[in-house]
Design a protein that fits this description.
Rossmann fold; 21 strands; 45% helix; 15% strand
Length: 632
């Protein structure tokens, strides 16, 4: 067999492994069941890819994330390694052919979702394959206490029954001690070798700042740290707004969210990776599988939904080993916002039952029928028909999918999109001669910002209601605008597909998974409570708080987080701070904010020094409420 280091050099052009990688690979090659807990950026994928390449046969990789599967398959294929992913939308005949290719075509990797594993044809073909390794990515999904628990993950044990002699490797970047125990039990691991890299990041300073004016603080941080940065926000609109704000203030910025086309995503990512743009403003759709070592700052303008997701996102900073910063900017409104966004939109079991019954009625499925039937699905029309709240309904559909009741092909993420391609002035001149379009156009402009700058996804039902026209008439008028070169326009008549996995049994169907739903709601509340506890705890080192959450009992303070800096300010004499303030004011009058942003000192030490300088009449306050030197 080739040596792992030779595979690393040949395909990845590296001459040495990252910490624990080689030990994990050797454990897998020795046929041991292996558990690997590596923080974000630890190189988890290589831990199963390299031993799978070394050994004869094919590796079955179970992953819940379609985008991650496609990304890893694409990377492997570009290296000349035969790999495929069984994603949704594959016909039975195509599936049959692809599985035969895995048996007879010398493929090294087969990526599939845990839901796909439930199909008889998939199980039958896997049994015929020469499987050299079973890899379970995002393994925390198997635990009822894990982030993003998916009941279908419990079916992975089928692979152990199909290939009892094949060892397994479970990988995750975030798992608490009870989740680790759960994973090992559920995967039926036999005396697994456990590798757990410390979560401590000695070079990463975790900062939490209370700021009423977040944009001002954001600008100050980026001016002080002029290097590659990621700014996480909670909405697609915010990515555009914040990026434009930064561009208008002289920064090189771009944005990224799930609504962009694949081409747009790749173009923006490539530009950021090359540092053509220093700053990426993004939703949490950004970051998966991305390893950019020189990221200096990761800034959250909105609170994350869990410590697990925050740790992964923050961990994208400082992978080159140089000092880096993970910053959360918070204010008094954030606690209400995070509860509204993540807790108040959780559907109850009764609400889920109601939606499930309406879905079956909508598609006229009789009691006891519907198993593996697929239907075209217009999400907006469904919500309008039954007057359902769209957010609650969407969350309900996600829960039904997670619990194995339906499969939702979310094509409605790419529904009707438009962009005005003429100037604002030219548009209103056009409307002077086409007054019948005026109400529709103005309704769109008042509802969606940034529609001249980029293609925006619009809700046609909402616009039709506001403009007092039918949805069909709206689409006709948008088509007219498109052909007259006023807008770019793409529209899909069917915006999703739903496959019912189990036969209709109404309440009985939901009752079987009700305990899981209730557990996940409880978990969501605990996760949000943990985030709020973290941002509000200014007594305990931020790094120690995070490590404790994941079961690491670090005894020493990090010395560089926002808590440590305030509790243990750098030992400098007051005279030094005062001299720096005076030097700063020699360039002209400045606000306290301006001084704080320019000096690498704690805010407390600067404010104390300013007060003493005022008392000694060295400085004074101007009519504009700024500080100036008295003798000037």
């Amino acid at each position: 067999m080739p040596h792992p280091i030779n595979i690393l050099e040949r395909y990845w052009n590296f001459t040495s492994f990252r910490p624990l990688q080689e030990d994990i690979i050797n454990s897998v090659l020795n046929g041991e069941d292996t558990f690997a807990l590596l923080p974000t950026g630890g190189g988890k994928s290589m831990c199963f890819q390299i031993p799978a390449i070394v050994k004869e046969g094919i590796c079955i990789v179970v992953s819940p994330l379609v985008a991650l599967m496609k990304n890893q398959v694409s990377v492997l294929q570009n290296k000349g390694i035969k790999a495929m992913a069984l994603t949704s939308g594959i016909s039975y005949n195509e599936l049959d052919t692809l599985l035969d290719n895995c048996i007879y075509g010398n493929y090294k990797f087969l990526y599939l979702s845990p839901e796909r594993l439930q199909q008889d044809i998939v199980q039958q073909r896997i049994k015929q394959m020469n499987v050299n390794l079973i890899a379970v990515d995002e393994a925390h999904c198997i635990s009822q206490w894990g982030n993003d628990f998916r009941p279908a993950y419990k079916n992975i044990v089928i692979l152990r029954q199909l290939h009892p002699q094949t060892n397994i490797i479970a990988l995750t970047a975030s798992a608490t001690p009870n989740v680790i125990e759960d994973i090992i039990t559920e995967l039926d691991c036999i005396k697994p070798t456990i590798f757990k890299q410390s979560f401590a990041r000695k070079n990463l300073a975790y900062m939490t700042f209370h700021e009423e004016d977040k944009r001002y603080k954001l600008e100050a941080i980026l001016k002080k740290n002029k290097a590659s940065s990621i700014i996480y926000v909670r909405s697609r609109k915010a990515t555009v707004d914040i990026s434009n704000f930064l561009i208008n203030n002289g920064f090189q910025s771009t944005f990224y969210h799930g609504g962009l086309s694949n081409t747009e995503k790749e173009t923006r990512l490539e530009a950021w990776l090359k540092n053509d743009f220093k700053i990426m403003v993004a939703t949490n759709a950004f970051g998966m599988g991305i390893d950019k070592p020189d990221v200096k700052t990761v800034i959250h303008l909105n609170l994350p939904d869990s410590i697990e997701s925050y740790f992964q996102e923050a961990g994208r900073a400082g992978r080159d080993g140089n000092k880096a910063f993970a910053v959360i900017l918070k204010n008094k409104n954030d606690e209400v916002l995070v509860k509204n966004q993540f807790l108040n939109v959780l559907p109850t079991v009764d609400y889920i039952k109601k939606i499930y019954k309406r879905l079956n009625n909508y598609f006229q499925i009789s009691y006891g029928e519907g198993e593996y039937q697929t239907f075209s699905f217009n999400f907006n029309t469904f919500c309008k028909t039954y007057k359902f709240n769209s957010v609650l309904t969407y969350n309900t559909l996600q829960i039904l999918e997670r619990t194995g009741v339906i499969i939702l092909n979310k094509q409605f993420n790419n529904k009707t999109k438009i962009q005005f391609i003429i100037s604002n002035n030219a548009l209103f001149k056009y409307l002077e001669n086409n007054s019948n379009l005026s109400t529709i156009v103005k309704t769109i402009l008042r509802t969606y910002g940034g529609i001249f700058e980029q293609s925006i996804k619009i809700n046609t039902v909402l616009i039709a209601e506001k403009a007092s026209v039918t949805e069909a008439h709206l689409i006709t008028m948008l088509d007219k605008l498109y052909h007259e070169k006023i807008i770019d326009f793409s529209h899909s008549k069917t915006d999703a597909e739903i496959t019912f996995i189990v036969p209709r049994e109404d309440d009985k169907t939901i009752n079987r998974v009700a305990h899981i739903i209730k557990q996940q709601i409880q978990l969501r509340h605990r996760q949000v409570a943990s985030v709020l506890s973290y941002i509000n705890n200014d007594k305990v080192c931020k790094s120690k708080q995070l490590l404790s959450y994941f079961g690491d009992q670090e005894t020493e303070n990090c010395g560089i987080c926002s808590v440590c800096i305030n509790l243990n300010p750098v030992a400098i004499d007051d005279l030094t701070v005062k001299k720096e303030i005076i030097a700063c004011l020699e360039r002209g009058a400045q606000s306290s904010r301006g001084i704080i942003n320019q000096l690498s000192r704690s805010e407390k030490s600067i404010l104390n020094a300013l007060q003493e300088l005022l008392e000694c009449n060295v400085i004074s306050i101007t009519k504009k409420n700024t500080y100036k030197l008295t003798h000037i």
